[in-house]
Amino acid sequence: MKVSISINGENVSRDVEPRQLLVHYIRETPGLTGTHWGCDTSNCGACVVLMDGKPVKSCTILAVMSEGHEIATVESLEVDGELDPIQAGFHEQHALHCGFCTPGMMMTARALLDENPDPTDHEIRTAISGGICRCTGYKNIVAAVRWAADHQAAAKQEA
Amino acid sequence: MQTPASFEYERATSVDGVIAALKKRGSGARVIAGGHSLMPMMKLRLAKPEYLIDINDLTELSYIREEGEEIAIGALTRHVELLNSELLAEHFPLFRDAEQVIADPVVRNRGTIGGSLCQADAAEDLSAVCSAVKAKAVIRGADGERTVSMEEFHVGPYTTAVGAGDLLIEVRLPLRAGAGSAHEKVERRAGDWAIAAASAAVWMDGGKIAEAGIALSAVGLTTIHLSRAEQLLKGKAPTDELFVEAGEIASTDCSPSADGRGPVDYKRHLAGVLTGRALRRAVSRALHQEA
């Protein structure tokens, strides 16, 4: 059936089988392979994207269920060559080893800071608890989100 | 790659439309809400619906509100909304206890109370929570609406009173004076299913427990309703000895099986300890003594 989904602000249409998962639609139709497809069982969080601003696991949502919703993927973070504070934080704090969990972690963290710009370390850990980093780099991921929160606040003050 | 078997898809625009579609399509039709239980089952081909009815647009089924002597929760209300509801936290704090430890925050953005209850997984927390607070489930079918208690709702493993042509519409929680409640869960790691969990509610009257509701998760084939322990507590003053005794009933009346989460004797012990803890906190909250 025909489906039309807004992905990173662009309307993407295609005929798909109802059983196609959102993660595959994102990777195959607009070719945005930044969203990773990991465990297939909604446990690992590599596939997290934002649906109407809320983080969701795109391996457990059908593409057809996403019609009429705004999807944002990891590719939406960088704007005009400028890294999102979350991306800069991951870079600065060395928050990735293999990088497989990174897109999901970053989108989850982005949603956290949108809702709570100054989270405690405990709140950060709770927020990312739906993501698995098999390199077990959680400490640096928490530091990266902290870095992003601090720099985001500083940038706002300057502005 | 895990992909569900093929099916036809319909996005529902009204509750009546869902009931009509269920009637027309028969037992091959399934309703999908958050989908975080059904979709994994479809990928594993444990569920193979021929016709999927998506109710996510039915926002009229998403609410938590006070109606007379009850709190009404729409079936499409998501975990995150149950977690954040001040109304629920005020009257039934066990919802917030449970919602902090149900799956993870990302899953909680999608999963719904209706989906959780209809899945009726014995390890799922909300089934025990709703049982403890003596909730009622409002079910609509082709012949109209009916309201059932949680005992009637839980028919068997993964089986509820919601039949093939039915839709769970609402959960109703009776508001009574002197209420206190708590949910205690032990899990192996963040976001995992419970090794065991206990939900308790008490209604205090003049320093005594007028009534109690207790239910257990993950220690049997279905949610365990601890009616023997509820009877024991009725009319008694809350003491540590009484909570221990209720815990002993919990250990006896549950029926866990050994698995990767632990052996039977450990799970029985845990069910007893958690029952005692949940009761103690429920009473403290009812008496406003919680530190």
Structure, described:
The complex is a heterodimer of chains A (159) and B (291). With 159 residues, chain A is of the alpha+beta class. Chain A is 36% helix and 14% strand. Chain A has 2 domains: 2-76, Ubiquitin-like (UB roll) (Roll); 85-158, DNA polymerase, domain 1 (Orthogonal Bundle), CATH 1.10.150. Chain A has helices spanning 22-28, 85-92, 102-115, 121-127, 138-158, and strands at residues 2-7, 10-15, 48-51, 54-57, 70-72. In chain A, helix 2 (85-92) crosses helix 5 (138-158). The model of chain A has no long low-confidence stretch (mean pLDDT 96). A 5-stranded antiparallel β-sheet of chain B has the order 4-5-10-6-7. Chain B has a 4-stranded antiparallel β-sheet with strand order 11-12-13-14. Chain B has a 3-stranded parallel β-sheet with strand order 1-3-2, with helices on one face. In chain B, strand 4 (64-67) and strand 5 (70-74) form a beta hairpin. In chain B, helix 10 runs antiparallel to helix 11 and helix 11 packs antiparallel against helix 12 (264-286). The relative contact order of chain B is 0.12. The model of chain B has no long low-confidence stretch (mean pLDDT 96). The interface between A and B is medium-sized, with 31 and 29 residues.
